[in-house]
Amino acid sequence: LSFLRTxxxxxxxxxxxxxNEKDNLPIIIWLLGINFEIIVIDDGSPDGTLEVGKKLQxxxxxxxxxxxxRAKKLGLGTAYIHGIKHASGNFVIIMDADLSHHPKFIPExxxxxxxxxxxxxxxxxxxxxxxxxxxxLKRKVISRGANYLAQILLRxxxxxxxxxxxxxRKEVLQKxxxxxxxxxxxxxxxxxxxxxxxxxxxxxxxxxxxxxxxxESKLGGSEIIGYVKGLLYLFAST
Length: 238
What we know:
The protein has eight helices and nine strands. The chain has 238 residues and is an alpha/beta fold. It is globular, with a radius of gyration of 17 Å.
């Protein structure tokens, strides 16, 4: 029973799904510091991300950096399922490896979880002093619009549904990932909707999201269409 553990017994595993993040991986691992087990799930990056991971493992040790590569791009949901199997922490942090999420917010996630004995703590760009930096107006409008639409249709009890910077109890993350059917951009939203459906407790921490420093952003027209389809599916099925 995880709520009976003392704080000293809590262990935090960070799941880092990567695809072409060779420039960002050393920086994010350095920023995370020594407090976490970091599980890198690389989906066959052609840019040599895995080789960089191996060098970092030599520096930090294989108890700190756990490499769990896969042969090709198989999606975020299965990356989490794959990563959870190897996580030894009782809490799991999910975040992007592209420096859009700063580890400096993690202590606040942990504090919020402890104060409310919560199952899920989600980073939000849309409440308190959260925000987005480096996006053009179009991207901001799409993101805000997508989130607003989801709020109206789904009433999720959380202000930021498509973010991927969160802290979960390990067993809660496992149950949620296994119950989700969505892929891509909608997956994170379904995780929150299912959490509410199963009666899990959700808290939020305002974060600043910074657009990726190196590499390409992955949002295009097909992702937007996929999002709307996924939203309507969740509306119809939850």
